[in-house]
């Protein structure tokens, strides 16, 4: 009997393994865009509060943004996404839309990957990568899925 037709050459349990593999439901582009907008609003509020508390003026006397404001923006973005996604796999927007970030293989998001995802958001033109798989997902081997599909 040829190797292809020999039933004993098939991997044991491969048929049953198909039933054990969870089927995660990826978040739609619309939901991901809503996450982006909502998180952007939350981040702007945090930046505004921190700028007001610190007495930071948004514009210097030349009428351009000062470097401390750029630094504040970048720091808030990185800390916001890293803390929320690193601890819970979800930002406030993802809690609202019922989505969560997981590793491609279905495990919980690693804190280091959450930090890397945050840094990837600063890649030029990264927001336009959302028409396919966003770079902050593809570079970190993560995905955003509906929270209900992981329970």
TrEMBL record:
Transmembrane segments: 33-55, 67-84
Keyword Transmembrane helix among UniProt keywords: yes
Primary localisation category: membrane
Topology with respect to the bilayer: Multi-pass membrane protein
Keywords: Cell membrane, Membrane, Transmembrane, Transmembrane helix
Signal peptide feature range: none
Cellular location(s): Cell membrane
Single GO cellular component term: plasma membrane
InterPro entries (UniProt xref): Pra-immunoreactive, RDD
Domain RDD: 28-130
Protein known as: RDD family protein
Organism: Chitinophaga caeni
């Amino acid at each position: 009997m040829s190797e292809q037709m020999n039933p004993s050459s098939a991997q044991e349990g491969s048929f049953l393994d198909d039933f054990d593999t969870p089927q995660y439901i990826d978040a739609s582009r619309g939901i991901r865009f809503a996450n982006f907008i909502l998180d952007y609003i939350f981040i702007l509020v945090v930046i505004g509060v921190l700028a007001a508390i610190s007495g930071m003026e948004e514009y210097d006397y030349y009428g351009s943004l000062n470097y401390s404001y750029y630094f504040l923006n970048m720091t808030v973005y990185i800390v916001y996404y890293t803390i929320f996604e690193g601890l819970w796999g979800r930002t406030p927007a993802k809690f609202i839309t019922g989505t969560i970030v997981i590793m491609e293989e279905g495990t919980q998001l690693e804190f280091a990957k959450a930090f890397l995802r945050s840094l990837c958001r600063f890649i030029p033109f990264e927001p336009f990568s959302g028409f396919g798989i966003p770079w902050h997902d593809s570079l970190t081997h993560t995905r955003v899925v509906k929270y209900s599909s992981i329970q």
